[in-house]
Amino acid sequence: MELTPWQVLHTVARGYVLAGQGMGRGLAEHWLSLKYCEALDANRAGAMDLTDKGRTPERWYKAMQARELAVGFGLAAAEHILRQRYPGHVLSVVDTSTVLRAGWPLGVSQRNKAARPRPDYLIEAWKPGEPSKITLVACRGNHQKPGRTSGRTRTTTIRQLVKGAELTEGMQIGPWNTTPCLVLSTELAGQGGIVVNVLESPGETLLPLRSPGAPGSADEEIRDKPGIPYVNAIRIPAREGRRARSVDGFQVPEDDLGWFGQLVARTGAAGLAAFSGGTRITARYLTARQGREHYDVPAFSATSSLDDAETELGGMKFVGTDHVFRMGSVRVEAFSGMADDLYRLISQGRVEEYRRRACDLGSSWREDAGAGRRSGAVSFHADGTVMALDILPVRRRRTP
Q1: Contact 88, 127 (CB under 8 A)
Q2: What is the C-alpha separation between 310 and 326, in angstroms, rounded?
């Protein structure tokens, strides 16, 4: 799999953009990937590796670095697998906790110290005219000492894969044991490179097909369903001599699959808007229990992202939000947003039309947009999002 550091940063930002619905906290999570700009580089073999700065963080910071970069590498690997599995589809990454708040009691759906097992993300593979496919994803990461990855048993990685399997078992969509899962553990192996370990559970979960303009489309506002049970909700049929039984978990009943498909599509649209800085647009796609009120407020550049920036890449216009930060004496401008025509559809509430347009564009717009770029780094996703990084000119000190 070919991957660049800025693609990893883009994936981290997309994964965390709806993780915490707050003002200042939301801005920090939107741009948290930027602190890893100096952590990743190519080694002498041409493979991605941690830089010296990436290998020597403070002890308290190491766990956070492994956890957050695991989201970038894990989701990138999961998307790579699903693109091969579902050619011609576009992938949407949705934070599971944000989805669960709309249907299950807050005491079990919110992510906290006593949180019940659930996958970290849902990835929806969608293509207009076909049912969407859902895959559950759990991402974990760890630091490995040099030499430990070749030879000795990697107990930390094994424990993380086992934990990830437990998390994905905590959610079932439709009939029991039919939803495919990807469990990933990323090893940041010092000078040994970066390794992503993957466990795969087969299956296929199809969401009901929606028709644009018809009842049940993603353009329609939906309401919370806070009464979906958690206790003894997952029914495991009799098998291998064992009787049927029920266990606690997040079970999406077959009767609610249509509502769940709308919920996932609209939550994905909220993530696109938040990534582009459109706080009010984000609010229109979230339900009350998902945190709509945190976005339906006046936005200020000091506390939240604003969708008042635009840039041109390869003759194409992109709109979104920007941020300038410093690494030592170097000033870096980061832009995150979407292709202008796609973002306009999201801002108008036309999710189904956005999806048709994004699929029609395919990969050609990404190739055209990246052509002729002379400086900086740019990452494109098939969902229409882009992250661009540019080094700004040095400001000279004014002499007294």
Answers
A1: yes
A2: 21
Count of Cβ atoms closer than 10 Å to residue 135 Cβ: 28
**Residue 313 and residue 11: Cα distance in Å, rounded?**
20
Residue with tokens 């993530």: 271
Which regions of 194-269 does DSSP assign to beta strands (E)? 194-201, 205-206, 234-236, 245-247, 250-252
Whether the CB-CB separation of 256 and 225 falls below 8 Å is answered with: yes
CB-based burial of residue 44 (10 Å sphere; 0-12 exposed, 13-18 middle, 19+ buried)? exposed
Instruction: Give Cβ neighbours of residue 206 (< 8 Å, ≥ 6 apart).
Output: 131, 132, 133
**Residue tagged 């064992």 (tokens):** 242
Distance CA 351, CA 268 (A): 10
CB 323 within 8 A of CB 334: yes
Instruction: List the structure tokens of 33.
Output: 């990937």
SS3 content of the chain, % helix, strand, coil (to 5): 35, 25, 40
Which DSSP helix (H) or strand (E) runs through 204? none
Tokens at 152, concatenated: 């000795």
Rounded to two decimals, the pTM is 0.91
Query: For residue 5, what are the CA distances in angstroms to 69, 187, 223, 370?
Result: 10, 16, 39, 16
What pLDDT was estimated at residue 394? 74
Give the DSSP letter string of 55-67. HS--HHHHHHHHH
Concatenated DSSP letters for 98-138?
A: HHHTTTS-HHHHS-STTPPP--SEEEEEE-TTS--EEEEEE
Taking the chain (400 residues) in runs of 10, the rounded mean pLDDT of each run is: 92 86 58 87 86 76 88 96 95 95 87 78 96 97 69 76 95 94 91 88 94 91 91 90 91 95 97 91 93 71 71 88 86 93 96 95 64 70 93 71
Check: CB of residue 320 under 8 Å from CB of residue 309.
Answer: yes
> Do the beta carbons of residue 336 and residue 321 sit within 8 Å?
yes
Compute the distance between CA of residue 289 and CA of residue 91 in angstroms, rounded to an integer. 25
Note the maximum CA span of the chain. Answer: 86
The confidence score (pLDDT) of residue 20 equals 62
